[in-house]
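Preliminary data (for renewal application), tetrahydrodeoxyuridine complex.
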Amino acid sequence: MDDKTLAARAKAAMKGSYAPYSNFHVGAALLSEDGEIFQGANVENISLGLSVCAERNAVATAVNAGHRRFVKVAIASDGDSSVPPCGACRQVLREFCEDMEVLLVDADGSWRKFQLSDLMPEAFAHFPQEPKS
Ligand code: THU
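Predicted structure:
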């Protein structure tokens, strides 16, 4: 799966966003080890702390479909600049891989590439053991 396709899918995922409180729409496209893409968007709640980020919704969708190994994620928003994943999302992404590429997609569709291990060094994690079922 090429980066351009994944970046485009992150932008497409923004259409699923429910963000009436922040008006900040985020989309994520998560690539599984076996080559499937799972999209997610942020879903907010009037009790603001219950809002869920795009990345975590993409992970939940993928895991519910039986996929637990991921190699790359692309994140897009309708803001002026790219959105790095929040700390909670970094921890959730780390649950299902030892490391992965993180593409931060800009408004013009271009992206910058990071490693999750650089964004979250010394993570609290159990990998490389298999997560318990
Ligand atoms: N948001 C995400 O979806 N992903 C991130 O990595 C950062 C923040 C969402 C949460 C909330 O709906 C909105 O952006 C504003 O914080």
